[in-house]
Amino acid sequence: GGEPASGAEPERRRPPTPIWRTWLIFVVSIVLLAALARLMVDSLLVVVAELGLETQVFSFFALAIGTTLPEFFIVLRALRRDQGDLVLGNVVGSIMFNSLLVPGIAAVVVPQRLVMPEGMWMLLGSVIAALLLVVASISRRIHIWEGGAFALVYVAVSLQVLGV
Questions:
Q1: Does 159 reside within a domain?
Q2: Within a domain: 128
Q3: Full pLDDT tens readout for the chain, 164 residues
Q4: Which residues, 6+ apart, have CB-to-CB distance to 61 below 8 Å?
Q5: How far apart are CA 135 and CA 155, in angstroms?
Q6: What is the DSSP string of the chain?
Q7: Does residue 126 belong to any structural domain of this protein?
Q8: Residue 78 belongs to some domain of the structure
Q9: Residue 161 and residue 61: Cα distance in Å, rounded?
Q10: Nearest CA-CA partner of 164 in 91, 71, 57
Q11: What are phi and psi of 9, to 5 degrees?
Q12: What residues make up the domain containing 140?
């Protein structure tokens, strides 16, 4: 019956984390992310000035990678736990937040102008990514070829932004 196989250790379950502790960790994480984001942007601007690079081009890579790393680790953890719904929700939610809410609120606070042609290529890459997500949602999974297409679009847009 319920006995573990001989020599096997019984499965140990951790007691559930108290809800107040979970909320505390969540709030502290948000505060730390906000503080670190400010440090990252300040550091990025210094590096861009020191190297004489265009802010938009450099931030396309450095800032995007830095701000996306937490999402990347969440996705990896969810994949290990076979939680594809969390992966898709994270990816789509992130795209919606970054593409709609961030520039929307930023434009309300301080209206900005789009810099073209780099901005056009970034927008085109975003549209293609959205279309690929629509294709993936039909089968309710991201297949290898679709993952490759996402990576290829990113590389193509990156090369265009760099002027290669």
A1: yes
A2: yes
A3: 455 555 555 666 778 888 999 999 999 988 998 888 788 878 888 888 888 877 777 777 777 777 788 888 888 888 888 887 787 788 778 877 877 888 788 888 888 776 665 567 777 887 888 888 788 778 777 778 888 888 898 888 888 877 76
A4: 158
A5: 20
A6: --SPPTTPPPPP-PPPPPHHHHHHHHHHHHHHHHHHHHHHHHHHHHHHHHHT--HHHHHHHHHHHHHHHHHHHHHHHHHHTT-HHHHHHHHHHHHHIIIIIHHHHHHHHS-----TTHHHHHHHHHHHHHHHHHHHHHHTS--HHHHHHHHHHHHHHHHHHHT-
A7: yes
A8: no
A9: 10
A10: 57
A11: -85, 140
A12: 114-164
Q: How many domains does the chain have?
A: 1
Give the Cα separation of 88 and 99 in Å (integer): 16
Question: Which residues contact residue 56 at a Cβ distance below 8 angstroms, ignoring those fewer than 6 apart?
Answer: 115, 118, 119
